From TrEMBL:
It comes from the Bacteria. It comes from Gluconobacter oxydans (Gluconobacter suboxydans). InterPro entries: Glyco_trans_2-like (IPR001173), Nucleotide-diphossugar_trans (IPR029044), WbsX (IPR032719). Residues 957-1079 form the Glycosyltransferase 2-like domain. This is Glycosyltransferase 2-like domain-containing protein.
Length: 1246
């Protein structure tokens, strides 16, 4: 139905349409300035024929060219028919999309709506142009206050600016507009985008040498910042890495290769020879270093040890008494403070110009003259005597790269061994490199061998040269699939001689061989970690002279593509993979990883919330997290500092495959943070990753960014939809969703009230105590209501100052410049901009004014409340009014909610609140601040998210009772921090230790960046069971693990127990078998299974599920087979009941108190026990423990007492009682005591 009367004239229709802009018409056509009110008639009769535009978004000639059926005034046709029929007024306005995206009032043209609102609201005329991106990408346009689209259409496209992220104007012009260089690429794209051969940027399938270089020269999707291992992390093997010293100049290299030659000289020669060929290799953190000072060696040593690498194998160059490249070793020897264990590998091959160790085109040769033997051995011995030199089985290890080139090698090594013994008293282990067909050390009289991939490992692998797409048609190198190399390497059989196995992070010597080398293609940090971890597992059962040892080729072979040092593309990802393999973190990766997904890393509220969520989940609970972002931003480095961070695309074909891989790696849950990232929801569902969907937007923002449809889709796929307040859910129409959860977000910044900071800020502003400050904060735009805040200032009277913290939107600043300048010049309106000390400004203020038109749950209001400020807000603008009402109903705090945009009401409320606030004492304000901070606990918020994301993992409290166990504390905590599932809390319960146990506990937690709670007794309790009781009372979890400070465990201990108790609600206790070690960690028993069998037969041979009573009868009636409480997890409620129920006995029992507690626990109604037969706990046995120092007679008395109590409580048959007597007799014999029966009166039955 037309909005115009049937008899309306064309001029009336044009004039009332809202799309004829008389001011624009005259401004664009200065020759018509005398027309006055006749301007509309001129357009209708002449203007459109002359190509004159009635507004910036209607081009009459273009409209007619696109719509050949239109005769007469094209604007009139558009008003009456065109828009309704979906015709565009100009190429860059889509009325159908616009009307579907934004709320256009009935009978109003979509174009009229856009023209009316485009300067006040962030609206997009077409989905393909993103004004927000444009202004962020080009701050000069934003600073000038220009309209983004107009700037692009007039000037921006000529300057090769991007209309949206993902559009490459240089590529597009080069590809499609080669013969029309002045054309607007966006307009061409809009006209042709449905053609299959048109792409806004170079597609992934379009490859070139230049594209590969560009891609590999910047951080890739697997880029990682360094995540150093804590020193206390438990290493599974001794890891060494080959080290190349050729990063300093020597005269010989200057003569052979040119002045200034080092290994870096070769590096730029490596270029991509085929598609996806990883070249060039560009160093990052250490740069193109020179090894001529101690500093680089110190940094390398620290970097290596933080990745779990014990030391380096330095290549050693000695040619007939001549040393080459010896400067780094000499620096190391001269600087004993450099903490770098090392050993030598004599690189005893000829040097040639071919870089292949051949005898062709020699530069310097090895002659192995017998008269040089003493000098050679003396030279080696100088290094072998260094305190940092690496030993195995007490002997220094000396490696020789190519024993096969040594004439009569067995005899030579006999001579050298003799010289080492007679001249230096050394007995080195001689180890050969497995290369060039020489693999068996026995043939040379050597002690062992070390692998040197790619030598040997590619011998059974297939070349993939036929599968690659070449750029270089002269390429003649050999290309192998890295994944196949890993598979074949791990499958190699055990050798009959000692062997150190070696993994290579990659291999590609194109920089040396230039198209004629060998490439292990397709290496990733994950594949490398699998190789290294697999070799470590083999080394644990195939030790090298008593130690599990593995090697890495190499630390810094840059020109051979074999290095661990950080590079531009992967960052520290390979170092981090080394650390995971070393500790088993990758091997033990659980199914409880959480993907944290955000739309970008722009420094704004939702992005910071996601960042802090990840930080808290790791720090407080030990959750494994990984970030996935749809775009980068200024916070990207901060994200990478917290956890691995990838940038993915929501519509990429590879995204689902990547998510499926991450799911296989254990990331089976995700948190989708904001509707702006909802494009990934279908991919998560397809990859079978359950996710929480956090919504931080409200309707206007969703409309402006066309997010309604993907948001609604994500809501249907999510496990739970999380809104910060019921009012937010209602405004989004989500209140009826079955999967909706209301979870107010926490406060991730600390904003405590400080009187000192209040006075300091006020003094800096020249204000006294009588002045009132009303404060607002955020990015000053229309959504935040900055213009309303300015109006609020205008209403204020007397000594009232208004302060706005944050940057201002350039276009709004331009529109308000007159009023804003007037306000700033008044002396009562202040804009300090974006500040670092927000808490100090909040302390200085008296009231916070939230003038936002739409704001779901702004964190700055939580900060204000946590600074003790009262707040005033407009109603129905988000979740804050609801929060303020709740606070007012529960406390004596005062806040105000006023009608939307009612400035007089806001001014009145703010004045009253400011007066009330200023009259409070500092103590009152601090009290309010503490209450608010507790209410907005971010730990609590993150824990709620964790529980929703991982519902199968209960709240587990870990309590560590300790008394003078400083020596063991670090390992105990490390084994807890390494658990593959998150825990709710970790409490160190110290029983008045007089060593530095707590200092070590705190330092270990700091090293791991983990939260612990330390509770210290000032007076010894005198009983371990008193400490257990205290532990259970203070623990806040549903389950409790009493992890004694001298024990430790495997990383999967808790996860395996939780698997065992899953869907078994009656289980109150679950424990595993243990292996035993002595005070120094030396093995005693690999398992207690044989001990169990003495009493329980085969009941504990395998994983078992018992009722409480059957476990007592079968496994605890004769002796206590739960030998170590550290091996058990208890349901807290039941354990507390049990301990409370036997307090009288626990006051006297010193050795059998745990047995007594288990009896009380398992005689509760309908309870069950789970036992796992794998020894996942490590029980440390001491010679002077309570058990051993207790009087032997008292020990037996306590056992006898437990026997009587068990017999009484369980009505044991005579056969059980007979076994009990036999066990007591066995103990008496073992202790050398005569039978004694009077002790039955010593401990009466409870």
């Amino acid at each position: 139905m037309s909005p115009f009367p049937v008899d309306a004239s064309p001029l009336q229709i044009l004039g009332h349409s809202g799309i004829f802009d008389a001011f624009y018409y005259l401004k664009s056509n200065p020759d018509l300035h005398t027309l006055g009110t006749a301007v509309l008639r001129h357009y209708h009769q002449h203007g459109w024929r002359e190509g004159r535009k009635p507004n910036p978004f209607f081009d009459p000639h273009w409209y007619l060219s696109q719509n050949r059926d239109v005769i007469g005034d094209p604007l009139l046709h558009y008003i009456l028919h065109g828009e309704r029929e979906g015709r565009r007024p100009i190429a860059w306005f889509d009325p159908v999309w616009y009307a579907r995206t934004y709320h256009v009032p009935e009978r109003m043209l979509a174009l009229a709506h856009y023209l009316k609102n485009r300067h006040n609201t962030p609206l997009r005329p077409i989905p393909e142009f993103d004004p927000d991106f444009y202004l962020r990408a080009y701050p000069d346009v934003a600073k000038a206050g220009l309209d983004a689209l107009e700037h692009y259409m007039v000037q921006g496209f000529r300057e090769a600016r991007k209309p949206f992220d993902g559009f490459d104007p240089l590529y597009y012009r080069r590809k499609y507009l080669r013969h029309s260089p002045d054309s607007n690429p966006l307009l061409h794209y809009l006209e042709n985008r449905n053609r299959p051969d048109i792409h806004p940027c170079s597609p992934e399938t379009e490859i070139s040498v230049f594209g590969e270089i560009k891609r590999r020269s910047k951080p890739g999707p697997l880029f990682e910042k360094a995540r150093p291992l804590p020193r206390s992390a438990i290493r599974r093997a001794r890891i060494l890495a080959y080290y190349l010293p050729q990063f300093h100049t020597i005269p010989e290299n200057d003569a052979w290769w040119g002045e200034g030659f080092t290994e870096w000289t070769n590096l730029p020669r490596g270029i991509p020879r085929f598609s996806d060929h990883y070249q060039p290799r560009i160093p990052r953190d250490l740069g193109h270093y020179t090894l001529n000072t101690p500093e680089i060696l110190e940094r390398q040593a620290a970097m290596a040890q933080a990745a779990g690498i014990e030391g380096f194998i330095f290549y050693f160059y000695w040619f007939n008494r001549k040393r080459l490249l010896d400067q780094p070793l000499e620096i190391l020897l001269s600087n004993p403070q450099i903490d770098l264990p090392f050993c030598l590998m004599w690189a005893n091959e000829n040097w040639s110009r071919r870089w292949d160790g051949s005898d062709d085109d020699l530069l310097i040769a090895q002659d192995y003259r017998s008269e040089d033997d003493e000098a050679l051995v003396d030279c080696f011995a100088r290094y072998l005597r260094d305190a940092r030199y690496i030993h195995f089985d007490g002997r220094p290890v000396l490696m020789v790269y190519r024993p096969g080139t040594i004439p009569d090698a067995p005899a030579a090594f006999v001579r050298w061994r003799t010289l080492f013994r007679t001249r230096h008293g050394l007995d080195p282990l001689f180890v050969m490199g497995q290369a060039f067909g020489d693999e068996n050390p026995d043939l040379f009289g050597l002690d062992g061998a070390i692998e040197f991939p790619p030598h040997k490992v590619v011998s059974n692998c297939n070349l993939i040269n036929d599968e690659i797409t070449l750029f270089d048609n002269d390429f003649s190198g050999q290309v192998y699939d890295y994944g196949e190399v890993v598979d074949k390497a791990l499958a190699q059989p055990r050798t009959p001689f000692p062997l150190i196995r070696t993994a290579a992070p990659s291999w590609d010597n194109d920089a040396r061989r230039q198209g004629k080398g060998l490439v292990l293609h397709g290496s990733t940090p994950e594949l490398y970690e699998r190789w290294l971890s697999g070799l470590i597992e083999q080394a644990q059962s195939r030790t090298f002279f008593g130690d599990p040892v593995v090697c890495i080729n190499a630390w810094n072979e840059w020109a051979e593509g074999a290095y661990l040092e950080p590079d531009q593309h992967f960052g520290s990802a390979y170092l981090n993979a080394t650390a995971r393999a070393c500790t088993g973190a990758g091997k033990n990766r659980s199914r409880s990883g959480i993907l944290l997904i955000g739309h970008d890393a722009f420094p704004a509220g939702a992005q910071r919330l996601l960042l802090e969520t990840g930080r808290t989940l790791k720090h407080c609970f030990g959750a494994e997290v990984q970030f996935l972002l749809l775009d980068g931003g200024a916070l990207l480095d901060e994200y990478r500092n917290v956890a691995p961070t990838e940038i993915v695309t929501g519509d990429s074909k590879t995204t689902t495959a990547r998510l499926e891989y991450l799911r296989r790696q254990g990331f089976q849950s995700a948190i989708l943070n904001s509707a702006a990232s909802s494009a990934l929801a279908p991919h998560l569902a397809e990859a079978d990753i359950g996710f929480l969907f956090l919504i931080h937007e409200l309707p206007a923002l969703l409309r402006s960014r066309n997010l309604h449809a993907p948001m609604e889709k994500a809501c249907t796929l999510a496990r739970h939809v999380i809104a910060p307040a019921q009012s937010v859910a209602k405004r989004l129409g989500l209140e009826t969703l079955n999967n909706l959860k209301i979870l107010p977000q926490g406060l991730y910044t600390e904003a405590p009230f400080s009187l000192q900071e209040r006075l300091t800020i006020r003094r800096g502003m020249g204000l006294g105590t009588a002045d009132r400050i009303i404060i607002g904060a955020g990015y000053a735009d229309l959504r935040k209501g900055f213009d309303l805040f300015l109006q609020l200032w205008r209403k204020m009277q007397g000594a009232v100052h208004c302060v706005w913290l944050g940057d201002i939107d350039p276009s709004l600043k331009n529109n308000l410049h007159v009023e804003l300048n007037s306000a700033l010049s008044s002396g009562t309106f202040h804009m300090p901009g974006r500040v670092d000390n927000v808490p100090a400004w909040l302390a200085a203020a008296d009231v916070f004014a939230l003038t936002s038109r739409e704001d779901p749950y702004p964190s700055v209001v939580l900060e204000a409340l946590a600074a003790g400020l009262p707040c005033a807000a407009f109603e129905e603008t988000g979740g804050i009014p609801e929060l303020l009402q709740q606070i007012d109903s529960e406390t004596d705090h005062r806040n105000s909610i006023v009608p939307f945009a009612d400035i007089p009401a806001m001014a009145n409320a703010a004045n009253k609140l400011a007066s009330w606030s200023a009259e409070r004492s500092s103590r009152e304000r601090q009290k309010a601040a503490r209450a608010a901070a507790q209410r907005f606990s971010f730990r609590h918020y993150a824990q709620k998210l964790l529980s929703l994301a991982l519902p199968a993992i209960p709240k587990i409290s870990v309590v560590i009772p300790s008394h003078n166990y400083a020596h063991y504390m670090s390992r105990r905590l490390s084994s807890i921090f390494a658990q593959t599932i998150p825990v709710f809390e970790i409490i160190v319960l110290d029983d008045a230790s007089d060593d530095n146990s707590l200092d070590i506990a705190r330092q270990t937690a700091k090293d791991w960046d983990r939260e612990i709670i330390c509770i210290e007794n000032t007076i010894p309790s005198g009983s371990v069971f008193k400490q257990w009781h205290k532990a259970v009372r203070i623990a806040r979890g549903d389950w409790i693990w009493i992890a004694e400070a001298d024990d430790f465990c495997e990383p999967e201990f808790l996860e395996r127990i939780l698997d065992g108790i899953k869907n078994k609600p009656a289980v109150v206790m679950a424990f595993t078998d243990s292996r035993a070690v002595d005070e120094d960690g030396a093995p005693i028993f690999p398992s207690y299974r044989a001990y169990y069998a003495e009493s329980a037969g085969l009941l504990m041979e395998n994983d078992s599920h018992f009722t409480g009573e059957s476990f007592l009868r079968g496994c605890l009636s004769e002796r206590n087979l739960v030998l170590n409480v550290s091996s058990a997890l208890f349901r807290k409620k039941h354990l507390l009941t049990a301990i409370n129920g036997c307090q009288t006995d626990l006051k006297t029992l010193r050795v059998a108190g745990d047995w007594r507690i288990y009896l009380e626990l398992l005689t509760q109604k309908n309870v069950e026990v789970i036992y796992l037969a794998q020894p996942l706990n490590v029980h440390r046995r001491h010679g002077d423990s309570v058990t051993h120092t207790l009087s032997r007679r008292n020990h037996i008395d306590e056992v006898a007492y437990m026997h009587r109590l068990l017999a009484s409580r369980l009505a044991l048959p005579e056969t059980h009682i007979s076994r009990q007597k036999h066990y007591c007799a066995m103990l008496e014999q073992q202790f050398g005591l005569v039978p004694h029966h009077a002790s039955e009166k010593a401990l009466p039955l409870s």
